[in-house]
Amino acid sequence: MNKEVLKLNVIPLFPSPLGIIDIIEDCSNLKKIITNYDFEPTTGSTSKACFITKDLNILESFPKEKNIILNYFEIYKNYVLKLDNQKFKMTTSWGTKTEPGGYSQFHNHQNCTYSGVFYFDEMSGGNIEFESYGIYPQQILLNNPTEWNTFNSKSWMLTSKKNMLLLFPSYLYHRITENTSLKNRYSLAFNFFPIESFGVKDSFINISL
Q1: How far is CA 174 from the centre of its chain?
Q2: pLDDT by residue (tens digit) across 113-125?
């Protein structure tokens, strides 16, 4: 059949939305201070030379930058997720440091609903990779596709760059790939949880954080 006359419609059923936003505001203050925080190793057994700040509410010390991120999340949840009538609170925020040759394990974030990463520094090594744990496109082993895309991939890598903000469902597994540069790689991560009232009927709940 001639593919040019074939009527074909593909629905991205049950997608996991990954928001990618270029922040235009000046957040250079984060680099000046976060790099001087106390860090501790991550607990993943498959991580190497990867650390997080001991302070897990780091953005409380950066009210201007916190409000910038909250404003972008507000726009994202209202106009993309259509959750205009739902309020969220940022529950945790922390800095990450990956030394040259280091990387993190695949992980997701529990006890939250949405998560985010912000790159406030120049990136020359170490990207972010997402993996479809538990939701593989195929249940049997097939030959590799002639082209990888969001419909057939089991993992997806994004090039980390300065001033890029990522927002995604907390269940998505992700990791920092190997830092191939000769300097430390820094980023900022955070989680959100719904507050006040949400749900309906027997699933209704009211939470104050």
Answers
A1: 8
A2: 999 999 999 988 8
